[in-house]
Amino acid sequence: MSLLEIRGVTKSFRGIRALRGVDISVEEGEILGIIGANGAGKTTLFNCITGAFAPDSGAVTLDGADITGAKTHVLARAGFVRTFQLMRPFGTMTTLENITVAVQSRGVRTEHAAREEAEELLIRTGLERWMGSTSASLPTAVQKRLELTRALALKPRVLLLDEVLAGLVPSERAPVLDLLEELRREEGVTLLFIEHIMAAVRQLSDRVVMMDQGAVLAEGAVDDVLADPRVIAAYLGKEYGDAA
Ligand SMILES: Nc1ncnc2c1ncn2[C@@H]1O[C@H](COP(=O)(O)OP(=O)(O)OP(=O)(O)O)[C@@H](O)[C@H]1O
């Protein structure tokens, strides 16, 4: 049994079939890259896994337990943490306050202990010089690292990243990728990430799923999927120039 199993998941929005029977299994500790053109259904899949939407049909299981349509807070307790394409830190709070709140949300801790842990995390993710800055004032690249630090503070079992590298220039991507590699090495976190930057998909993925028009078109080892003529025709042929 895989850690996370998505079976026959469908979801429509007023006649638009965003997901048409998606089957994906994810092993514990695996890093799964999810690629596909705009509108392929990637974000809707995340929404169906993390409880933002209930699927119309199909099932999602975690460790064999049915979590289909469970509420976001129940899934958060089960260890699902998600980042969004548009980041959502509390803009008027400082970086340190944001991470302290995330640490506290894991359970009852004294404010002092939570703050200490938050400081350690911010040092680890290279954000110590921004500890006192309000989150809204940070440059995009730093906000992305803050979003990842917040995810780390929640100690995820399954982490879902939605285009965490979007809007970053290549030199800004490297520290984010290093952080994700470290997460894999040191925390053994199971990671599902949606990404258009193919260099990052190649670097991080143990396996890749390519979605097209609400369905899985190809899946397997990263080199095989990226060389698959159907993937090139449906996605890479159009976008690889920009994405690579
Ligand atoms: N809340 C919603 N209401 C209506 N339609 C939606 C909603 N969410 C997604 N859709 C539609 O479902 C389809 C799949 O969208 P989705 O955002 O999942 O694609 P995506 O692969 O994540 O694309 P992108 O790479 O642009 O983020 C699209 O046609 C989209 O317009």
Automatic annotation (TrEMBL):
SMART domains assigned: AAA
A matching Pfam family: BCA_ABC_TP_C
Keywords recorded for this protein, A-Z: ATP-binding, Nucleotide-binding, Transport
Top-rank lineage group of the source organism: Bacteria
GO cellular component: plasma membrane
ABC transporter domain boundaries: 4-238
CDD domains: ABC_Mj1267_LivG_branched
Gene Ontology biological process terms, A to Z: D-alanine transmembrane transport; L-alanine transport; L-isoleucine import across plasma membrane; L-valine import across plasma membrane
GO MF assignments: ATP binding; ATP hydrolysis activity; L-isoleucine transmembrane transporter activity; L-phenylalanine transmembrane transporter activity; L-valine transmembrane transporter activity
UniProt protein name: Branched-chain amino acid transport system ATP-binding protein
Source species taxonomy: Bacteria, Bacillati, Actinomycetota, Actinomycetes, Micrococcales
